[in-house]
Amino acid sequence: MKVLVPIKRVIDANIKVRVKADNSGVELNNVKMAMNPFCEIAVEEAIRMREAGTADEVIVVAVGPSQSQETLRTGLAMGADRAILIETDPIPEPLAIAKLLKAVAEKEDPGIIILGKQAIDGDNNQTGQMLAGLLNWSIGSFVSKLSVEGPTVKVTREVDGGLENIELVAPAVITVDLRLNEPRYASLPNIMKAKKKPLDTHTPEELGIDVSPRLEVLRVLEPPGRAAGIRVNSADELVEKLRNEAKVI
Amino acid sequence: MSILVIGEHDNAALRPSTLNVVTAAKALGSDIDVLIAGSDCRGAADEAATIAGITRVLKADDAALLDGLAENMAPLVKSLAGNYSHVLAPATTYGKNLLPRAAAILDVQQISDISGIESEDTFVRPIYAGNAMATVRSNDALKLITVRTTSFEASEFGGGAPVEDISGGINAQLSTFAGEELTRSERPELTTADIIVSGGRGMQSSENFSMLETLADKLGAAVGASRAAVDAGYVPNDYQVGQTGKVVAPNVYIAVGISGAIQHLAGMKDSKIIVAINKDEEAPIFQVADYGWVADLFEAIPQLEATLGSNAS
Ligand SMILES: Cc1cc2nc3c(=O)[nH]c(=O)nc-3n(C[C@H](O)[C@H](O)[C@H](O)COP(=O)(O)OP(=O)(O)OC[C@H]3O[C@@H](n4cnc5c(N)ncnc54)[C@H](O)[C@@H]3O)c2cc1C
Ligand SMILES: Nc1ncnc2c1ncn2[C@@H]1O[C@H](COP(=O)(O)O)[C@@H](O)[C@H]1O
User: Fold this and answer.
1) What is the ipTM of this complex?
2) Of A69, B111, B135, B184, which one's alpha carbon is 20 to 30 angstroms from that of B202?
3) Is residue A122 part of a domain?
4) Interchain CB distance below 8 Å, A218 and B172
């Protein structure tokens, strides 16, 4: 079985993003980029499936500018077997990404597609669910436990009330949550090896997909700031402030 | 504008998220239908019918809809969508699971997690863990939107809308529900609580976390946590507040042993009052706290409890 893992290049989670002075977006120039953290978890899970013998090939796919090759190489260095870049600039919206991924899935015929639950730039939390809808496949979203048992994929999902167990008919789309696994670091020898692994590039035109945007970003602003307040030094003082000044308890 | 609100419920009763979404719908128009899709969901439908200011409740009662599986729900939403200008769902795990699938099969680019409405096609939403606010205009004829519940007040009850039965049963036979492990608690729900006491890695263990629970009970508060506390297994996953957990906005949020990473702040910085108790005076949480107390939590929490106990209001 093949496993397809769509991965996105985003601003590193440790970087404090800055809104551009002209309010057209956030500053991306000279900013450290990395693989979306949820995508790292997705890649890790796919590699573990291959190591366990449930999968025989792991393919990482990125939609984005040519720099996304770096992200794909990271996925290859973690242990993916080959990579596909669908070159677009700028990165399209989730619906268009899902359509591109569907086209790739139809070519590659994977038994399972594992995505992150959310890309930490747009915080959209859509792509996996959309892809499952377009393919008319089952969906296991926000997954913290996953096992493939023959034609059934058993998942535990993190939901607002706790945990939920679902059994999916394969092929399935999975989106992963933080607690599914702890992604590995790529070792230096594996980083070297990754340079020789195959990376194919396609375009939306080749795949016959219209990626024109449906949304127009009118402006991007700093959120309203919160000023630091005052220091208290005792429980009495804190309780007094909460009761009589803030009047919240 | 005709708006369809996808109601969140457990068949017997409505979930409060629906009330916030109805308020968002009211900012778009006055013709508002609430869909209650489930199985044996009369209880939830009747409750929804009493939300003030809605037009109708559409009740789709079918065994295939019992567990709200997206594969069975999305075709139903698609079949109804033609009658509406907007379809709204809460940005809860329920809405986030369902609505993008419906959007995809309707060929609509969903707008996620809106915190503001500027006009019928223009919305404000946080991006980058709330470090930026984007105003976006949708050029799709139909809009599918998930709503950040804490950004909209809960609608009041007191109405009496009619409940109409609609057919809905599509069993896609792609997935089956196989049980749940829900966190049971007598405390208020995190997303609607007025007071939240939240603990981080500084709590050190699940045993220590019970200190916070005692404090919470004194205050009638809900208990939350940082990702670090959840990952370490001190508390269940559904306690997590943040970019990838729950978004909360209580009257007062008391952060104990939480450093204040941007991903955590993303989930709580709209709280009215923030209290931080942390032994590190450089902790970033103090930059957003209205009341900051630099203290060892193992001394501070018992003192706080004693103070609250001695002159309880
Ligand atoms: C993709 C991604 C998503 C994430 N999503 C979330 C999310 O949704 N929610 C979330 O919370 N985090 C999230 N995180 C993690 C986040 O970056 C931080 O790692 C996390 O919030 C830290 O938790 P913490 O503050 O409890 O732990 P730490 O940062 O370790 O802080 C512990 C604090 O406790 C204090 N302390 C220790 N002992 C005591 C004591 N005895 N008395 C008083 N104070 C004490 C310390 O001074 C310190 O400030 C995410 C990260 C990533 C990469
Ligand atoms: N440009 C992209 N290329 C490849 N995968 C993507 C891309 N954007 C999103 N994804 C996948 O979809 C997941 C959810 O993203 P989103 O819906 O944008 O929050 C990510 O974790 C990725 O697995």
Assistant:
1) 0.97
2) B184
3) yes
4) no
